Amino acid sequence: MILGQVLKSSPNCFGYGNSIFSSHIPLFTLSFLRHFGSKSVSNCNSREKLKLGLGNIRNLDDALYLYDDMSRTRPLPSVKLFTQLLSRVVNLKEYSAAIHLFKDISCNLGVSVDEYTMTIAINCYCLSNRVDYGALICGLCNLSCWSEVKMLVKNMIGCKIYPDAMTFSSLVDALCKEGLVDEAEDVLRIMKQQNVNPDVVTYSALMDGYCLQGRMVEARNIFDSMASRNVAPDIWSYSILINGYCKKKKIDDAMRIFREMPRKGLKPGVATYNTILQGLFRCGRDSCALKLFDDLQADGLKPDFYTYCNMLDGLCRNGQVERALLLLGALEHKEGEHLHISYYNIVMDGLCEAKRLDAARAVFRHLPSKGLEPNVVTYTIMIKGCCQDGLLLEEAKDLLLKMEQASLLPSEITYNIIVRGNLKGGKYEDAAKLFEEMDAKGFSLDASTFELLLDLLGTTEQNPIIFKMIQKLAPNALKQKLPSQ
């Protein structure tokens, strides 16, 4: 890490303003030129030199030179040495410099700071009267440095520095996204103890955390508690709860919340409608979904890409491929509507699942006339249709060849589908060749393909090709139990 890259006079990742090293431009330039393109230091005497250097720091220039050396040493010096360097910088009363170095040590170098390092950073904030500690918390959250965040908040409170509502909300949101909902609840309790009132953003973030874990009772309790604290839920709050209920297939609860929104003066947007549409289709309520689709347009909203994807996919999954084809036809004739390959992929997949391969082929053939080019997903869907019963394997191989000729690389899913097709069709040698090909590309057989291999092992009188494939895939413990061929 070159220190010059850290000390640019543009805002850094924690939102600080201009560089505090403006008076050290000669050093900055010299440091940059001195180390640009140089190799890491790794000789055995370097650490002793660093320790000696710590005792010879007389000014900030000395500290910065030493920091450059430390940041290039491999492996990196211990956190203890970095902490000692920070301590020397603080003794020089260069508090802002110490804060910048602390940021670089923890963020850019990736050194795991300890409580002593964190205490020095907090003291620097106190001594320099800086108020951007909230940005430091956000930065550490983005790096998932949770132990450092915990120490930082603890030491801040010890110094009687309390984060504001925005900082607390950012912390709650970051914890919830990492699945640390109970820790987020602890933050909420600290907020209340410090008389910092959680706002709708804080509560919504916590609700989202519970919904992501499927803990809908707790999410609803948070939602209900907002009213008792005079915090009005907004569209985002309602959407979070609706999405959580839909994922748990509690569509009636989702619909009740959805119908409540207009009574609270909130108009659902297209994104909220999309969530409900997907939930209704997942629960087999396709007639309700069709009505809601009409309601969306009656409310003056315009369906977007996700709306049409949800509609086409939902209809196909609920056995209404003909309706999906009609909707696709309507889109083709709708003025100003941008056709997307995903619409056709969904319908082709639905046709293949319904064993209507001829119709899927027709849609596939007409793509160029719609101004669309097949993508990896398109070819994979058609290959799957050919391989469903282990039949039409030559057509599947032909599609694979055309796919590669179009400079489209088969994915892991593509390979698994065609390997399974060949296994089902008894083409074990072809399956083995494809397996070797995908293995060379770093792809693996998925659970369904491996399960099929195991089933075949028991029904093919231990076919040597199947056996070799399993031996190559099996973990070492299982290999020892398999008889040798």
Summary tags:
28 helices, 0% strand, single chain, repeat, 485 residues, Pentatricopeptide repeat-containing protein at3g22470 mitochondrial, disordered N terminus, mainly alpha
Summarize the helix and strand pattern as letters.
HHHHHHHHHHHHHHHHHHHHHHHHHHHH
The average pLDDT score comes to: 81
Q: Which stretches of 5+ consecutive residues score pLDDT under 50?
A: 1-44, 476-482
State the secondary-structure class. mainly alpha
- How many helices? 28
Largest sheet: none
Gap between N and C termini, in Å? 54 Å
Walk me through what this model shows.
This protein has 485 residues and is mainly alpha-helical. It has a domain of 81 residues. The protein is built from 28 helices and no strands. Helix 7 packs across helix 9. The protein starts with a helix and ends with a helix.
Which helices and strands occur, and which strands form pairs?
Layout: H1 3-6, H2 25-35, H3 46-54, H4 60-72, H5 79-91, H6 95-108, H7 115-128, H8 133-142, H9 146-158, H10 165-177, H11 181-193, H12 200-212, H13 216-228, H14 235-247, H15 251-263, H16 270-282, H17 286-298, H18 305-317, H19 321-332, H20 341-353, H21 357-365, H22 376-387, H23 393-405, H24 412-424, H25 428-440, H26 447-459, H27 464-473, H28 476-481
